[in-house]
Amino acid sequence: NKMRRNFIGLVVLLACCFALPPLNNQVQLVEKMGDAPSLVPKPGVPSPDQDGVIVEQVVNVNKTAVIVVLSEATPAGQKQRQLIRDTWLQALNKTSPYAVPRELRKAFAVWFAVPKIAGAMESVEKEGNINGDILEINPSDNSATVSKTFDLYGALARWVRVAYFEHFDYLVLTKDTSFLSITNLNNYLATFAGRELVYTGFVNSFESAPESYGQNYYAPFVVEGTIVLSRAIVELFSRELNLIKPLARADITLGTFLMTYDQGKPIHNGNFVSNLGNLYEPLEHPIIINRCPAPMMIALSLPGLDVNGRPLPPSPVPAQVNSISTRQIYVDPIPKDPQPECGGLNPTGCSLDAMKLINQVPK
User: Fold this and answer.
1) 102-106, 233-237, 295-299, 301-305 — which is least confidently predicted?
2) How confident is the model at residue 139 (pLDDT cuts 50, 70, 90)?
3) What is the pTM of this model?
4) Which of 116, 128, 220, 291 could crosslink 134 through cysteines, CB 3.0-4.6 Å?
5) How far is 174 from 191, CA to CA, in rounded Å?
6) Chain centre to alpha carbon of residue 54
7) If 0-12 CB within 10 Å is exposed, 13-18 middle and 19+ buried, where does residue 102 land?
8) Nearest to 182 by CA among 75, 283, 104, 72
9) How, if at all, do strands 203-204 and 221-222 pair?
10) pLDDT confidence of residue 11
11) Strands 108-115 and 63-70, bridge-based pairing
12) How distant, in Å, are the alpha carbons of 69, 92, 188, 204 from that of 268?
């Protein structure tokens, strides 16, 4: 009986050993488990009924920023998308002499958001099949241009949140007429290491508001086309979207919503240009330039190569305005403590914090 029990035990032990995978397979499994981006399931298409975004294939990878370019389902929009692919997107093209290093190329993703219009999508879909960078949007007004409503911003924020899950740090919302420097954007975003809530770009602090707003001016906001949001802001935005009351424009609405958070106030950076007509000084390191003419976009993106084939740094963007008679400076549209408004720089009984608007003649 004892020998029989020992024999049975040996058979069971051998069976267990044969059932286990080889050690090499176990090591490979551990290595694959450590490669999280390749194992995260593809999120597929977010609910088009809720968010209105359609995309066939999205892969979760770690990204410093996901850049969404608002475009149009028109011949003009198609021309602008190709202009971008041939200019500042060459930085992410590994076969281009202007390509940035591989690790930097992997850190950014660029998508063109194009409204899905009946009868106008055949050429857009062919373009998307060739380039793999088109997001088809269900527009609320069935127009060929991307609707600039707050719901669109919310839909794109929710899509990025789902498609990239926790594998992105920032969302950039810009337009197909904008120049964007991948290198300068990367360097700027690196300055926010350790900060959770980041809302930055070109800040407008003196936009007049209607009487119904309750203040003379809207809360400071980042102007459309230059909007950069950290992942934590995207989370807040996506979660509270249905509770936010839309204002005159989507960018104004976003700024007013984020003013309720301690670190949600917009951070202005002069290297974001909303309007070249207001560029009074040369710009050394442009990040985004709205309404950038094609020749300037080409010059900034393809600056030339030295004798060793390395890209040369582009020249500074020159000032677009030679002189200005007055300059508007706006301090704080919603002061914490009620104070009288001031009509000059240092009138009696007033302080700088109370100033709503100053007309200051430059020296």
Assistant:
1) 301-305
2) low
3) 0.73
4) 128
5) 21
6) 18
7) exposed
8) 104
9) antiparallel
10) 54
11) parallel
12) 21, 26, 12, 9
